[in-house]
Amino acid sequence: MTTLTVDAAEFGYGDTGPVLSGITVTARPGEVLAVTGTSGAGKTTLLNAMAGLLPARAGTVAVDGTPLTSRDHAVSLSVVLIPQDNGLAAILTAAENISVAVIATGGSPADARRRTAGALESLGLSGQANQLIDELSGGQQQRTALARGLALRGDVVLADEVTSELDAANRQRVLDLLRAEAGRGAAVVFATHDPEAAAACDRELHLADGVATWARP
Ligand SMILES: Nc1ncnc2c1ncn2[C@@H]1O[C@H](COP(=O)(O)OP(=O)(O)OP(=O)(O)O)[C@@H](O)[C@H]1O
């Protein structure tokens, strides 16, 4: 069971002013935490910082008390990021994208085969396993990225706008899968601008004007 804590943190880019400041939030095992806000509010900024991609200018981002130093460090602590832009390799198939990620994080080839098939099936993509990413629709690509994230079985799962291109049935399927991730003990953080999706989460942190407030603590 792993807890990710952001404490009195400030985040920004280059020498420009802060995007977010005074951010304090804990992602707890067994919970789905929604991070909401309008476009540009800083949802991706916060999730990238939680993933170890963006250092805090002030304050800390820590996993079980250990401050994150880099993305590699976060990966070693089982922090999985499902990025907004999918991050899939276009020259690989859907199944290969997932298998490579499982093997890169220490899984055996047999693990990779089993987890890839399971993750694709859970997202309704068994029929797309051997298609190249470029041959998939935007929503299928988004579900493939999610399948890859789920196959990694992270202790912390950061899902950035993973329902933005999905129809209602697939959105519900994804919300159920994020809930299942929490059910196996992961700390799940889900960035979304969709109020209905946020309502399905346990707590909601709202970002606006560079600060965070609890819409539902
Ligand atoms: N790499 C970057 N360099 C400079 N500024 C950036 C960078 N990434 C994001 N920003 C700025 O940080 C602010 C927050 O952006 P961010 O992508 O975190 O918002 P968001 O809430 O995820 O938006 P959306 O819902 O549109 O994805 C914006 O003003 C954006 O222009």
Automatic annotation (TrEMBL):
Gene3D superfamilies named in the record: P-loop containing nucleotide triphosphate hydrolases
The entry's keywords: ATP-binding, Nucleotide-binding
Database matches in Pfam families: ABC_tran (PF00005)
The keyword Plastid is assigned to this record: no
Gene Ontology MF terms in the entry: ATP binding
Chain ranges of the ABC transporter domain: 4-215
SMART domains in alphabetical order: AAA
ATP-binding keyword on record: yes
Name of this protein: ATP-binding cassette domain-containing protein
